[in-house]
Amino acid sequence: MLTVENITKEFVMGENIIHALDGVSFTIQEGEMIAIMGPSGSGKSTLMSILGCLDVPTKGKYILDGEAVEKLNDNQLADIRNRKIGFVFQQFNLLARTSAYDNVMLPLTYASNGKNKREIVRNALDKVGLGDRMGHTPSELSGGQQQRVAIARALVNNPAILMADEPTGALDSKTGIELMTLFQELHRNEGQTVILVTHDPFIANHTNRIIKIIDGKIASDEINPVPVVAGTLRPEGAD
Amino acid sequence: MIIFQSIQAALRALTANKMRSSLTILGIVIGVAAVVALMALGNGATASITSSIEGIGSNLIYVMAGDMQGGISGDASSGVVTLKDYNILKSNLSNINGFAPLYQAAFTINQEKESYRKSVTGSTEDFLEVRAYTIASGRNITASDRRSENKVAILGFQTAEDLFAGLNPLGRKFKINGISFSVIGVLEEKGSSGFDNADDLILVPLETGYTKLFGSASMQNGDRVLSNIYMTADSADSVDSIIEQSKFLLRKSHQLAANEDADFSVISQDMFLSTLSGVTTTLTIFLGAIAGISLLVGGIGIMNIMLVSVTERTREIGLRKAVGARKNQILLQFLVETITLTVLGGIIGILFGIGIAWLSTTLNLITAQVTLNSIIMSFSFAVAIGVFFGIYPAYRAASLHPMEALRYE
Predict the structure, then answer these.
(1) From CA A47, how far away is CA A36, in angstroms rounded?
(2) Is the ipTM of this complex over 0.95?
(3) Which residues of A touch B327 (CB under 8 A)?
(4) What is the number of CB-based contacts under 8 A between chain A and chain B?
(5) Which of A31, A118, A132, B85 has the highest CB neighbour number within 10 Å of its CB?
(6) Inter-chain residue contact A157 with B324, CB threshold 8 Å
(7) In chain A, which residues have their Cβ closer than 8 Å to the Cβ of B5?
(8) pLDDT of B140-182, one tens digit each?
(9) Cβ B11 vs Cβ B21: under 8 Å
């Protein structure tokens, strides 16, 4: 499904070269739900932008869904993002003053083929439980609902990978757990491949596999044999 | 399809910020309105000047003292046109419908206790026909009036009103420079026609004028001086050859050497027209150019706002890129936004400009003529400004790195 081989990413800052990623290799199978963990500055965000085709590695190979993407140009990367990757961000990043329906439609306006767009958008919103809120603008929705719209937007192109960057970071713990329920349902029922990027061990424990990144290298890559079923456990310190 | 979507997205973005959008296009609105209105006023002024010159009479040729070709400031006083010149022209030129020699001077006019200062014209019986003036009542001066140096006068409509205040002026007397003249004719009301006002006319027989009024100022080297000679050509085609022949005859009569500048001018009405319309056209272009500068300033304002907009919407741009927008699609979106603004401003500006022109016409200030040219020109200029000043902000937006844009706070 997704293989990275010896990936390196270097940034030049003044006279210093910073190795944000330094020889990272792993494979993710179709239908996996994994967490990429690491403290800030560990390189996990850089890894996410490379996995999400927002950036290309300085060195190394990246094969996504059978396509080598490390050498693609900007336009080809944009098309790959459009077809194969759905993003969910910490800050939702919905278009203001734009209805949930139009927000979810956005990726389809950049897609080349476009049949039954309305139906696809409706289905995506139904899937996240917002079929009755299609006409609402972000300011008329709660934080959890906004993030659900963002998830529907990520799903609307039927992506190979659903990639979420701290998806619960801006939400309270109860709403966060509701979202984790949604991610687990998508994974279990639809066989959706999910990659969560987080620094929060409680969230990471909801996945089947946890990759830890420290200083641009993989510190550990372990199967999580008994993932937490969302809603059965409260995070530490929560009421 | 992509263009259609871009326009839709652009309209959505612009209506989301109505206040800002309308303030932004104000610059373009004012610029385009100014171009359209000022060009319309300029064209209207040109047309009214042209028509007032054409109203003087058709195929008219003027002979006057001084060299107009060499500049108005040339030695106008050194040369004179005389009655002898008139007789030479009259006996040698062909293809001429009418000749009118005239002498003009200002005198005090008395009627009972009222006193006026007016210009008195001395000329022949041909004057009225050459100038296309019509007698409303009474008769024209005749050759025998001139021979007998009769003290008779023809009055313009306004002069007759001034002197006799509604009474029938025919046969009544008034005084020019203390000498009594009787009115033999009154002209129809003609309205101002630019230079010579027919309604203000006081016309006396040329010979009467010379002996009774004009005095020694009208005499030079034993010859009678003329202010002008008017000639009407029988057709527009013969105007040029008449001018050439007149110049030749007058040079001979004034005994000018081949290399000497002429001390007289022979000018056709067309030459007057083209000189004047050249001036007014320059003026119109000048006005348009000033208005064009305000368009340019409006364009810079739009670029400023679009740059702010790109910065404000950095995260939106990042998101659009993350969900698959290509560089070109982002470029197009912002370019279309700018062009939509300028097109909108252009349309509103044209309407305003036409409104101003209409208002000026309705209020009788200047009869403005809105030309399709000025509309097309200012509109395409506005769109060009949209493209020119839109490219840089759009390029900035399109070049943003998606990850950095998404992280932008």
Answers:
(1) 9
(2) no
(3) 74-75, 78
(4) 61
(5) B85
(6) yes
(7) 109
(8) 999 999 999 999 999 998 899 888 887 888 989 999 999 999 9
(9) no
3-state class (DSSP) for residue B273: helix
Determine how many CB atoms are found less than 10 A away from the CB of residue B347: 16
Residues 6 or more apart in contact with residue A66 via CB below 8 angstroms: none
C-beta separation of A183 from A12 below 8 A: no
The residue of chain A with its CA nearest to that of B315 is A93
User: How far is it, in rounded angstroms, from Cα B346 to Cα B378?
Assistant: 8
Is the separation of the CB atoms in B3 and B332 below 8 Å?
Answer: yes
Mutate to test the interface with B, among A72, A74, A105, A155 (most CBs of B within 10 A): A74
A4 DSSP assignment: E
Q: How many CB atoms lie within 10 A of CB B265?
A: 23
pTM over 0.80? The answer is: no
The bridge status of strand A161-165 relative to strand A209-214 is unpaired
CB A51 within 8 A of CB A225: no
Q: How far apart are CA B354 and CA B366, in angstroms?
A: 13
- E strands, chain A, in order: 2-13, 16-28, 33-37, 59-64, 67-68, 85-88, 161-165, 193-198, 209-214, 217-223
Residues A8-19: tens digit of each pLDDT: 999 888 888 888
b (16+ CB within 10 A) / e for A104-133:
bbbbbbbbeeeeeeeebbbebbebbebeeb
The rounded distance, in Å, linking the Cα atoms of B348 and B24 is 13
Please answer whether residues B161 and B111 qualify as being in contact, where contact means their C-beta atoms are separated by less than 8 angstroms: no
- Distance CA(A106)–CA(A51), nearest Å, equals 21
User: Strands across the sheet with A217-223, in order?
Assistant: A85-88, A161-165, A193-198, A33-37, A209-214, A217-223
What are A14's two structure tokens? 């003044």
